[in-house]
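HUMAN: Would you supply a protein with fold tokens?

ASSISTANT:
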Amino acid sequence: MTESILKNARIPRSLSPFPQGESVLVDCDIRIQDGLITAVDPAGSGHASETASVNDLQGRIVMPGFLDAHVHIDKAFTWDRAPNVRGEFWDAIELLSKDKENWTAEDLYRRGTFALRCAEAHGSVALRTHVDTGLDWGEVSHDAMQTLRQEWAGRIDLQTVSLCGIESYLEPAGRRIAEWTLKHPNALLGGMPQMNPDLDKQLRYFFDLAAEMGVGVDLHVDENGNAEAECLRHIAQIVLEKEFPHPVTCGHVCSLAVQDAERAASTIDLVREAGVQIISLPLCNLYLQGRPTETGHRGTPRWRGVTLLHELHDAGVTTACASDNVRDAFYAWGDFDMFEVFTQSIRIAHLDTKPAAACAMVTSGPAAIMGLSQYGKIAVGMDARMVAFAAKSFNELLSRPNQTRELIGYHSDASSVPAYDEL
């Protein structure tokens, strides 16, 4: 194929092959052939061949394709038929449990296709979706995700994770849940542990099962503002105790932010030592956390729901931010747009003081968590799908989040988001 060159692209230094320096962004020329990056040189240092296709970006910011490491495709776009008018967590669980009667293979495929079209049109190249897995609906859901995985191969890498109460694996149905999940490729075991007297027993069985089946795990953890919720700490301790050999990811971990500083720091130390990876879901947790109180308060929330992203990053823990739910009872809005997640996470978590880390949390961070080494950076040998923005500085990028973006190297059908009428 003909070589193409992106001239004068301004890329995050932390996602480039250049040594670290004072500037967050660096100007470069990027050479592309056969869908891969073949060279990244300082801007103006090379010469284009006569046959090369040249696109002069004139200093516009370019990011590698985004990765959304924690979503719920099976629930997406159900808000209109199951709205959560009070915006409360347990209401969302009840509403979507009732809506599962609508989760036929056709319904899951239709909404899932729409979700992936949105994600690609916004610049994503990979998603990891949690799939509600119970005896009455789990197999159909996983099969629908497998159909999407096959149809979207080469456009979006789709990974799946089982989602159920962690105690379910101890029940007779537990092995069937695991088998349904793992009969398809690119799958992990997951679940939602809750603080209870049998938590360690449940976690030990779960990790033994995952070790037996040779897979990593991805768990929903401490999605609340209760300082006594310490499932994360228990998980890290058991990972160390068992020397669990596969990747471990924990999403949410909201309660870490309301714990005593010394206790939180010691938990982060355990997380780092155990190699546990953390995914924060700032938009969804901002939406759900802080609504109800024991006095029935329905007014202004008292906290943001976001975990200790700064402290986790500073400790060397691999971190990412992701979409979580989209237009369902857990989160009323969203569009599988990782640039929105990027800009809003910076504002919610004050990541403006860590621009390099913020860039990594939607690119190289989730790539590492998902085990997709070909994504997340702009370097030789990496996937050449990139997103070019109109902005030339981070301030411009964050100040106008609805600015035009140019998809480079994506499928021709990814040029625009689908209309809601198609749902």
About this structure: The longest strand covers residues 4-12. The chain has a mean pLDDT of 95. The two ends are 37 Å apart (CA to CA).
